[in-house]
Amino acid sequence: MSYDAFKNWYVGTKGTAATSVNQYLDSFKNVKFSDDGKAVDEVTDANDFSKRVQPLLDLKGSPEAEFRKIFVIEKDNLKFDDLKGGLGYYLEFLQSKLMNADNQEQAYIQFKFLLRRFLEQATKNKKNQGERSQTLGRDGFEQNDYYFESSIPFDHIVIAGHVFKVRLRSGPSYGPLKETQSTTVPFIQYDINDNRQVNIRVSFVNSEVKSFKVVFWNPGSKDESTDISAQIEDLDLFSDLAPNANLKKLYDSYTSIRTGETNLRVQKLAKKLETSYNIILRGAPGTGKTYLAQQIAADIISKGYFDDYTLLSDEQKKQVEFVQFHPSYDYSDFVEGLRPKTNDDGSMGFELQEGIFTKFVARAQRNYDNSQKTKEVIEKEKSIQEIMTEYFSNIEFGVDVLKIAHGTKFFITSVDDKHINILIPENPVSNKLSLNVNELREMLESDQKFNQVKDVAKFFVKLNATQGYSYDLAIYEDIKSKKTIVSTTVAKKEELKPYIFIIDEINRGEISKIFGELFFAIDPGYRGITGEVSTQYSNLHDNPDKKFSIPENVYIIGTMNDIDRSVDSFDFAMRRRFRFIEIKADERLEMLESLGEVLEEEAIKRMCALNNEISNIEELNENYHIGASYFLKLSSLSFEQLWTDYLQPLLQDYIRGMYDEEGIMKKFAKVYDFPPAKVGDGNDNVENQG
Fold it and tell me: Considering the entire predicted model, what is its pTM?
């Protein structure tokens, strides 16, 4: 365990200047436990530490002989009063960590019991009229603040500060009308504000609750999904074991939602992105631009319910992509390029592979296209996909023989998302061919009849048929000849979703080399087919005539440090396609709240003093300010370590080549309070002496 963690805890809880704890740390560093040679910070278990030091803490005074029985003393003039005081505080520190962990575990245990009681009573209310009840009752909740609100009716049960309201409602119309259905009652909820709640809904199967799902609810409106859900069988509610990982995840996700409390600054930036499509967050280093970009993405994807990226579900995170530019990054990484591959015969070759941005845009495009389709079209496409999946799963690759119209035999050797690979043994010139899966899918989805190869060519608006059309037709006819039973599941119309691409350090890459012809396509005024372009390798595509475009649901966030030497070379054509938003060092101070009130206050004081001095240097300005994210390192470092290991090297780089570098660094160190002033320094009042 780090001494810095203890130091931060001490400063945060005792309200004492950070330097006052150094006397305890100095004493710790000069002793080791005599029985096992461990240093003080190597004993991290509160109970173990208590057994070791409690006898010393119970003594009157600080007798040296007693301390030497427990510790190996490595310093002659050690102050045993400091050691004793420090040991007491360190024990309190370890116990506070243990208490916090115990409190969290208790919250999980109580939440597990709440869900179990809720599930039991919900099932009774549904299945047994004689056991229906409007309340869970007080039994089992003796450790919790509890009351029953009869007017609604609601149970109010408090767990770790969260007031959970349980609505059971008994009556002849209790629960879903059908035995298998989701329902609004019963539910568990907690209030975000007067007009918004977060609810746990239930789903019944054969009158049994089988799953929970978390939704947002506003009076007078429909539920809004959060993608937080859990199967009852995965929660292990009815065992005596400790809460499992699934239950803890449900509790953490459920109680972490901050609907309506999204950072106002994040919301404003999200609105700017939605109206401008492309923004760049620029400013001094350490202002949290990358983290802010993730917050903006989370705010937009969650529809403003939260800005914590970690709360997004795995499915929602597919709507975000992150990349960091660097000098060697190029078009082939970003858009598309030729990559080496090993052929089936062992020889080396090249194949065209999509870059990260192209793959991301394809996901967004699928969502955009699907959101424009009718329910009937979606159901038809789903049916065709099931038919194709069933067909290829029953094919024995390399064994089952197919024939084209002229009688040439061929085999299907493999199938992936894009291609159907076939072998044509009777063709001595080209015995391998790769067919486009989408072409076959489009033929099956159409209402046209294909009797000849020329029908296929006409369908794809080609003057001449390609070699592949003969084999497309053969597979099409084989699928049509087989009777495949597909499911009758009703398809759901897909919602249009936002997709956010984050480019960190966007100015460190050679922009024109990376984006190429996409300068036009990313322009906010040319989204969709109006901005479509042919990419550099379009002649190698399955369909060379198909152009690249960026749909309207794609948003781009770039980040850049203003002082980077590459800023001046940022492409002007790209500049006018982005909205530049400055993030100043003093606008992100809320990041330091996690340090605790006392440490936060000291960090802000030093940061502001340092930035003021930076602005006083003639050749520097606010672009060179130090951002708050540097000071987040104080959770594991001291102010002195932060200076020597991070800030001092950065500042030295700022002023390299200036006149009187040493004098400037002394000014920086002075306003930062490095080295810290010593208590009782004999020179304290020199300036005031006559």
Answer: 0.63
**Which residue, 420, 428, 463, 426, is CA-closest to 444?**
420
Q: Answer for the pair 633, 617: CB distance below 8 angstroms, yes or no.
A: no
Residue 215 and residue 189 in contact, taking contact as beta carbons nearer than 8 Å: no
CA 579/CA 560 separation, integer angstroms: 13
CB 397 within 8 A of CB 414: yes
Residue 370 in tokens: 């699907």
CA–CA distance, 369 with 359 (Å, rounded to integer): 15
Contact 29, 42 (CB under 8 A): no
List of domains in the chain = 3-103 (no CATH), 112-256 (no CATH), 272-291+314-373+495-583 (3.40.50.300), 390-481 (no CATH), 589-672 (no CATH)
CB atoms within 10 A of CB 235: 22
Map tokens 């424009």 to a residue: 372
Question: Dihedral sign, CA of 677, 681, 687, 688?
Answer: positive
> Nearest Cα to 197, choosing from 218, 181, 177?
218
- pLDDT value of position 358: 96
Q: Is residue 675 reached through a cis peptide bond, with omega within 30 degrees of 0 on the bond before it?
A: yes
Model pLDDT for residues 474-530, shown as the tens digit of each residue: 999 999 998 666 666 667 778 899 999 999 999 889 888 899 999 889 999 999 989
Please check whether residue 637 is in contact with residue 4, taking contact to mean a CB–CB distance below 8 angstroms: yes
